[in-house]
Specification:
The protein is an alpha+beta fold. The chain has one domain: RelE-like (YaeB-like fold), CATH 3.30.2310.20. 38% of the residues lie in helices and 30% in strands. It has two helices and five strands; from the N terminus they run E-H-H-E-E-E-E. Strands 1-5-4-3-2 form a five-stranded mixed beta sheet. Helix 1 packs antiparallel against helix 2.
């Protein structure tokens, strides 16, 4: 099983998305997002699946929902780092890790 590490930006993105959902939508949508992140983290820990490659070495991404993609990098065989929960409506040219 792999260890999943969250960097500071990923954690900030995560909480910002929850805050947005709570203010603009409802607790249900916020909970759905939290559940989706939890399930995806569990899948990544199992190490059976890696998601879509990006143009950057060792960085992969997964569309959590229509609005949000998760970017992560493989550190080694036993660990990965969550990098960003990126709003898909933002300009990808501004995406930094």
């Amino acid at each position: 099983m792999r260890k999943v590490h969250w960097n500071k930006i990923a954690r900030l993105d995560y909480y910002e998305n929850i805050d947005y959902l709570l203010h603009k939508w409802s607790e249900k949508e916020a909970q759905d997002f939290i559940d989706e992140v939890y399930e995806t983290e569990f899948i990544l820990e199992q190490g059976n699946i890696d998601f879509q490659d990006t143009d950057l070495p060792d960085i992969k991404h997964f569309v959590l929902c229509k609005q949000i993609s998760l970017f992560y990098r493989i550190i080694d065989q036993n660990s990965i780092e969550l990098l960003r929960f990126w709003n898909n409506h933002k300009d990808n040219k501004k995406l930094t890790f």
